[in-house]
Specification:
The chain is an alpha/beta fold and 351 residues long. Helix content is 33%, strand content 16%. The strands form three sheets. Strands 1, 2, 3, 4, 10 and 11 form a six-stranded mixed β-sheet that branches. A four-stranded parallel β-sheet has the order 7-6-5-8. Helix 9 runs antiparallel to helix 10. The protein is globular.
Length: 351
């Protein structure tokens, strides 16, 4: 992949989600958005030097390095303590976010075949330790798949008032280029996401970027009008909708994401507390099955848990009206298991 130097600085702000695209000399910032009320995936893409700007380390990041302990993909999670006068509400919110983060990390560790790094941005050391502690009981083989690093919340001078806009630290993602100036690439994940296909498959989306791309968007209905896409189409890279499957895609009783129907959900988004509020039982059932699943058990057992949980849900409301909702939710995992089995057979034959 070739990247050219950028001479101008510009800022793009999307009202409501608050997303910023920064283009600076020596660096291009490419952002992949999971268009939702909260979830935005940001990829900081490709450092380079010189007037010609003809070299990039991005290919090395995509294809991996020889050292197996070197992370092949890097992610960012932001977790701040909400300010509230009601300690009960505060405790409930923290518990919910930790449950979600626990499942997000578990799904990443269970499905990856490489090493992943999670850069955790928190406002206290205690919050970071709370996240690390959710992996303490994991088998070592799975703990070793994830590397963690802690960074404190940072807001540049004269932007501190942005900390509590929308939700605590929701705007922190705007400053990732300043927080990680040494990084070549990062993927930002919100806490209410879980993987249904390997995380490195998302990382490989970099391979599809062209020189002109600075923003990648996974479609989300009702959030952005056609004018935004038309105006920015030359710079947009569109992710498949299976990378942001959420309740709005199926809640009206029909599937609005053909990619998920054909390829299966890749990343499930529990926006608006979908994983816990009981309104979309099929999506919540997936989250709860992941919670029950024990790492080091075969993925076929996870598949059985998912099938049992989904079969036990009613089909009278929302996403449950889709006759193929179970297939949509588990097809990607089924394919991953088949590929794993095929690789085992090939490896056995070679030996």
């Amino acid at each position: 992949m070739r990247v050219v130097s950028l001479r101008q600085s510009s800022v793009l702000v999307v009202v409501g989600i608050v997303v910023v695209v920064v283009e600076m000399r020596w660096r291009r910032i490419a952002i992949i958005l999971f268009m939702g009320a909260v979830a935005i995936t940001i990829i900081l893409c490709s450092r380079f030097t010189g007037n010609d700007g003809l070299y990039t380390t991005l290919d090395g990041l995509i294809n991996g390095l020889d050292n197996e302990t070197t992370p092949k993909a890097e992610f960012v999670i932001i977790f701040c303590e909400a300010s509230s006068n009601n300690l009960g509400i505060l405790e409930v919110n923290l518990t919910r976010h930790l449950r979600q983060i626990s499942v997000l990390l578990k799904s990443a560790a269970a499905l990856t075949s490489t090493t992943l790094k999670f850069n955790i941005i928190t406002d206290t050391t205690e919050m970071y330790h709370d996240i690390i502690n959710v992996t303490r009981s994991w088998p070592e083989a799975y703990r070793s798949r994830l590397i963690f690093d802690n960074t404190r919340v940072f807001y540049p001078p004269k932007t501190e008032e942005m900390r509590d806009m929308f939700r605590p630290c929701a705007t922190e993602r705007l400053f990732l280029p300043q927080i990680f100036p040494q990084k070549d690439a990062l993927i930002f994940l919100d806490t209410d996401l879980l993987f249904m296909q390997p995380p490195e498959d998302l990382w490989k989306e970099f391979q599809n970027f062209e020189e002109r791309h600075s923003v990648g968007i996974s479609p989300c209905l009702y959030m952005y009008g056609p004018g935004f896409k038309k105006e920015r189409s030359n710079r947009l890279y569109e992710l498949g909708c299976e990378w942001n499957y959420r309740q709005m895609v199926c809640s009206e009783g029909w599937n609005k994401c053909p990619g998920a129907a054909s390829r299966g959900v890749a990343l499930l988004h529990g926006a608006a507390m979908t994983f816990m509020n009981g309104q979309e039982r099929q999506l919540q059932a997936v989250f709860e099955a992941w919670e029950k699943y024990q790492l080091e058990r075969p993925l076929t057992e996870l598949l059985e848990l998912l099938e049992t949980a989904l079969d036990s849900q009613g089909s009278t409301e929302g996403c449950g009206k889709l006759s193929n909702i179970k297939s949509i939710l588990i097809k990607g995992l089924e394919r991953h298991i088949r590929l794993q089995d095929r690789e085992k057979i090939l490896k056995h034959c070679k030996s």
